[in-house]
Design a protein that fits this description.
With about 475 residues, the protein is of the alpha/beta class. Helices cover about 35% and strands about 15% of the residues.
Amino acid sequence: MIPIVTPEEMAAIDAAAPEPVEELIERACAALARTALDMLGGGYGRRVTVLAGRGNNGADGRAAAERLRRRGVRVAVVDADDAPDSLPAAHLAIDAAYGTGLRRPYAPPSPAPLLDHPSRAAPILAADIPSGVNGLTGELVGEPWMADQTVTFGALKPGLILHPGAQHCGRVTVASIGLDVSSARTHLVAADDVSAWLPVRPAEAHKWQTACWVIAGSPGMTGAAHLAATAAMRSGSGYVRLSTPGLDAGGVLAGRTAPTEAVGHPLPADDWADAIKAADQARFQAMVVGPGLGRQPSTVQSVKELAANTPLPLVVDGDGLTALGLEASDVLASRTAATVLTPHDGEYRMLTGSAPDPDRFAAARSLAAATGVHVLLKGPTTVVADPGGAALAIANGDARLATAGTGDVLAGIICGLLSAGVEPMKAAASAAWLHAQAATSRPSGGMAASDLLIALPLAWEAAIQQRAAP
């Protein structure tokens, strides 16, 4: 996993480093200059404009300019505090104006024109973070340039992967400059991590070892239930029981999208939590409740009773989150089995009374600490947090997931992984990564949630193959 540290944490790491600041700047500028030369395709005959401010960010840019000059590059350094409206034309522009700590609005000059093609802007390389992107939240502080590449130093910063800032960073690389970032509590999940976390069925496996119970849907609204159940089957569950309160077994599985392999199990329309006996749950390893359940008072009460009393690892999604509402902490207080809440921003508000903080890592941590369970906060960058304060970021998805039903699929994937024995933090993060990977394998337009069910096994297999690669 790739460490992520806040600007405040990075300042403390810098201060604790045994090397002097000058040595750290030298290492940073070396990494910046190497990337610039790669983007230029060489040094001699090339021109670079460096927009450099005060502080260490500007020092990195100025030191990189000296290195580039020694490689035959003609470099113009422009003071960010006194920059003209137009910058010297160049083959590359380096943004070293302001770093991760900028709080005031920043209006940079127009990007440097591309030499020989003045109607186009020169490619932009950002030092640490594009100037004008808040290093903690990814919020835009002014009008930052759109970088083609960003070289960040020591570790990722939240602003590089949280939106909208992430859209201004281009390709991000982390340059190691010898800092000890082992204290990081936040990490970005990569393909290698998911590959290592995915379960492998033993040769002696049988279906009941990884059984999952999906309680979802409502009469006339069974699509969410079918999506969640199919996703669980494609994500580690050997047996899926599907219950939609108010429907008999035939009704549960009716419709074109009903999963053929799921086993329908009737529950009454009202007080259905009372009908789920301990003996019924004994053969299952995980449960998901909430997708498409509806919000009737009896449903709300049954969700609370189930969440408080089931001994199974539990995923609460959709209408299940609405049912918990502001009482979530009290309802979940007695739980000892793994629990994962999966709110989007609107559901987060229902659980807490307010929208997530722009610092989405802090928002997820706050809810996890308050409820004592794991929280997966959905968004352009998904954040998973545990009650102890550790957090993981999943940033491989895109806007293809912004369509109805994709959250139901995600809930099913998490439940499938939990049923296979994956611990909740890794199950939630792996599910989000596979979910996003499946989406990005589909055409950029016209994707529906059910398309993820087709792509999911391929995303899973690709991750497993990466584990096997030398």
